[in-house]
Amino acid sequence: MSLLVKVCGLSEEQHVNAAIDAGAGAVGFVFAESVRSITPARAAEICGNVPAYVRRVAVMLHPTNEEWRDVLRNFDPDILQTDAEDFKSLDVPGTVDCWPVYREGRARPDTDGVYVYEGPKSGRGEVVDWSNAANFAACGRLILAGGLAEHNIALAVSTTRPYGVDVSSGVEIALGQKSSELIQEFVIAATAAGKDV
Prior knowledge:
By secondary structure, the chain is α/β, with parallel strands linked by helices. It is 30% helix and 23% strand. It has a single domain (4-195), classed as Aldolase class I (TIM Barrel), CATH 3.20.20. It is built from six helices and ten strands. The strands form two sheets. The chain has an eight-stranded parallel barrel with strand order 1-2-3-4-5-6-7-8. Strands 9-10 form a two-stranded antiparallel ribbon. α1 packs parallel to α6 (180-195) and α2 (40-46) runs parallel beside α3 (65-75). The longest helix is centred in the C-terminal third of the chain and has 16 residues, at 180-195. The chain starts with a strand and ends with a helix.
């Protein structure tokens, strides 16, 4: 199975298209307090050309059920990604997949499905301990996040052997400002790295 590559924190259609054209399997949109936050309506607008085989991910952080329902109504994502404990209080329909986030230093994943492994705080470009992530990868299908970029993705993938990788700040030219060129370089490099493991 090929490595899943997710480009997160998108807010412009050109960057969504760049990710898809390069071969990303998922595109993420942040509905939480962040320089990368976007409204559900805007996310839906810039996803007009996203093909069905590319997963559209709603990225949240400790949302109320009403906040989540607003995203569901106005964006209709394929996947909800938020901290693992958040799902206990959210009404997620069976049509939406769940990607719980397990943070470094916390409990081991309690799942055999897809989950995201990242540092204590999202969106700060903090690299996690890849050797520790490799131990976690024995549980379910780990998507590695945190501080990934074109220059370190090959080593990250060879060390952790993840199911997927998730990039955001590593494809920005300034805080919150994505670059189509950096997106394409990362996706291509990650895809190549995935073929070597």
